[in-house]
C-alpha cells in the first residue's frame, strides 16, 4: 500500500508554488486535523484552493486566485492544501467537495459550511488567469458579503 505521507515532488521545488498563495493570505492546511478544524466548523465564506504542481492548469490557477482577491467582495477565509505533497490533508479537503471528483488544481467556495461553487481542473486548464478570476469574482459577488 502506498504511503500517502511521502511527497511526490521535492519539497524545495514546490515551495515557491506554496508561497505564491500563502503570501497573498492563504492559510496552508497540511494535516486532516487542520482541515477539519476549519472546514468542519466555519460558517464564513471560505475559498479552498487545491494547489498543484501541474503546469498546464496550476500555472494559471494561482495567478487567477491572486487577481480574484483584488475584488471588492471576497471570502473571509482563504485556505489551501497541496496535492501530491500533503496527500492526507488534500484527501480530507476533497471530502468536503460533495459531488465533485478530485482534480488538481481545484477551487471550492463555501458559505455557511456548505460548498456553493466549484472550479475543477476542466474549468481551469487552457484558460487565461483573467478568465478564471472572472468566474471566481462572479461567485464572490453572489456568495460573499
UniProtKB/TrEMBL annotation:
Database matches in NCBIfam families: YphP_YqiW
Family classification: Belongs to the bacilliredoxin family.
Taxonomy, superkingdom: Bacteria
Protein name: BrxA/BrxB family bacilliredoxin
InterPro entries listed in its UniProt record: BrxB/BrxA
Transmembrane spans: none
Phylogenetic lineage: Bacteria, Bacillati, Candidatus Sysuimicrobiota, Candidatus Sysuimicrobiia, Candidatus Sysuimicrobiales
Amino acid at each position: 500500500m502506498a504511503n500517502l505521507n511521502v511527497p511526490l515532488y521535492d519539497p524545495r521545488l514546490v515551495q515557491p508554488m506554496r508561497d505564491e498563495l500563502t503570501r497573498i493570505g492563504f492559510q496552508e492546511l497540511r494535516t486532516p486535523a487542520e482541515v477539519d478544524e476549519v472546514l468542519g466548523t466555519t460558517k464564513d465564506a471560505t475559498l479552498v484552493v487545491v494547489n498543484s504542481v501541474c503546469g498546464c492548469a496550476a500555472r494559471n490557477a494561482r495567478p487567477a486566485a491572486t487577481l480574484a482577491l483584488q475584488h471588492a467582495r471576497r471570502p473571509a477565509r482563504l485556505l489551501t492544501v497541496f496535492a501530491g505533497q500533503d496527500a492526507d490533508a488534500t484527501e480530507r479537503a476533497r471530502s468536503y467537495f460533495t459531488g465533485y471528483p478530485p482534480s488538481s488544481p481545484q477551487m471550492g467556495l463555501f458559505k455557511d459550511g456548505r460548498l456553493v461553487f466549484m472550479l475543477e481542473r476542466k474549468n481551469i486548464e487552457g484558460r487565461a488567469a483573467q478568465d478564471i478570476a472572472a468566474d471566481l469574482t462572479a461567485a464572490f459577488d453572489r456568495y460573499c458579503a
